[in-house]
């Protein structure tokens, strides 16, 4: 049944939408979170806000009962990743990203041991297509093939979830099995601008393809009415969710 502001959807449906707080200051992020109100239950903090006080703001949101995805995309020598993840685990976030390189993923799994933090492996950024991979120095390989290889490595290492484009969500599900999270940025409601995203999918198709969580930033936080934009996506998720 379609949902409206009057009948806020069950919490688990709203949790499938992760709203990217890609904003320049904590003040602006706090204002957007306030406008979205109870339509938003899960927020992502990445480079822009993270380097502008966003980690303390993450703790504030957690204390208010919101879930937090720290999209820090860690990638460094193993010891640095392991200790960095150990520090992040103390913040109480739900998800943390690392790049899907085997050394990095193994270090992240070691660093989160004993905590509730879930590690997501970023396979191939959704702003990349096959040509971008060649430009970055990879032998010609379709992005989908590299996503599949990295998803299999992430599974074998014990990573909790995969970040990929929703174009690859169905094939990733076949690789990683039924339990792991499949978190898909590059989501664009029909008619909205792709911007720098190249592997783009609508919210409904992403859910149909098997994504567990959709990441949406600009189409919500830059919207004239961020709450209405978030609700429209939650409604689309609810209309196709099995
Ligand atoms: O492959 C990836 C991994 C992460 N992201 C992040 O998701 C959001 C998407 O923002 P939009 O404004 O909805 O395009 C952004 O914070 C990225 O850093 C991604 O897009 N692709």
Automatic annotation (TrEMBL):
The alphabetical list of record keywords is: Decarboxylase, Lyase, Pyrimidine biosynthesis
Q: Where does substrate bind?
A: 22, 44, 71-80, 126, 188, 197, 218
Q: What is its EC number?
A: 4.1.1.23
Q: Which domain of life is it from?
A: Bacteria
Named in its record, the pathway it takes part in is: Pyrimidine metabolism; UMP biosynthesis via de novo pathway; UMP from orotate: step 2/2
Ranges of residues in domain Orotidine 5'-phosphate decarboxylase: 16-233
**InterPro entries named among the record's database cross-references:** Aldolase_TIM (IPR013785), OMPdecase (IPR014732), OMPdecase_AS (IPR018089), OMPdecase_bac (IPR047596), OMPdeCOase_dom (IPR001754), RibuloseP-bd_barrel (IPR011060)
- GO molecular function terms noted in the UniProt entry: orotidine-5'-phosphate decarboxylase activity
By its UniProt entry, which SUPFAM superfamilies does this protein fall under? Ribulose-phoshate binding barrel
Under the heading PROSITE patterns, the entry gives: OMPDECASE
- Catalytic residues (positions): 73
Catalysed reactions, as listed in the record: orotidine 5'-phosphate + H(+) = UMP + CO2
Function, as annotated, reads: Catalyzes the decarboxylation of orotidine 5'-monophosphate (OMP) to uridine 5'-monophosphate (UMP).
Q: How does it assemble?
A: Homodimer.
User: Member of which family?
Assistant: Belongs to the OMP decarboxylase family. Type 1 subfamily.
The name of this protein is Orotidine 5'-phosphate decarboxylase
């Amino acid at each position: 049944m379609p949902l409206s502001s009057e009948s806020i959807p069950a919490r688990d449906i709203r949790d499938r939408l992760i709203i990217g707080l890609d904003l320049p200051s904590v003040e602006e992020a706090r204002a957007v979170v306030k406008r979205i109100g109870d339509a938003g239950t899960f927020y992502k903090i990445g480079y822009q806000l993270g380097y502008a006080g966003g980690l303390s703001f993450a703790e504030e949101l957690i204390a208010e009962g919101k879930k937090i995805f720290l999209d820090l995309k860690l990638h460094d020598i193993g010891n640095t990743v392991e200790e960095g993840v150990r520090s992040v685990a103390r913040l109480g976030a739900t998800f943390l990203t690392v790049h899907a390189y085997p050394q990095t993923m193994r270090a992240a799994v070691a660093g989160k041991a004993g905590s509730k933090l879930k590690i997501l492996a970023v396979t191939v950024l959704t702003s990349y297509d096959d040509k971008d991979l060649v430009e970055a120095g990879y032998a010609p390989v379709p992005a989908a093939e590299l996503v599949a290889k990295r998803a299999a490595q992430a599974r074998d290492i014990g990573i909790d979830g995969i970040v990929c484009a929703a174009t690859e969500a169905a094939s990733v599900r076949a690789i990683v099995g039924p339990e792991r999270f499949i978190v898909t940025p590059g989501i664009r409601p029909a008619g909205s601008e792709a911007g720098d995203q190249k592997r783009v999918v609508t919210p409904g198709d992403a859910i149909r393809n098997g994504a567990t969580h959709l990441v949406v930033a600009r189409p919500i936080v830059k919207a004239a009415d961020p709450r209405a934009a978030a609700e429209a996506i939650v409604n689309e998720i609810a209309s196709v969710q099995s």
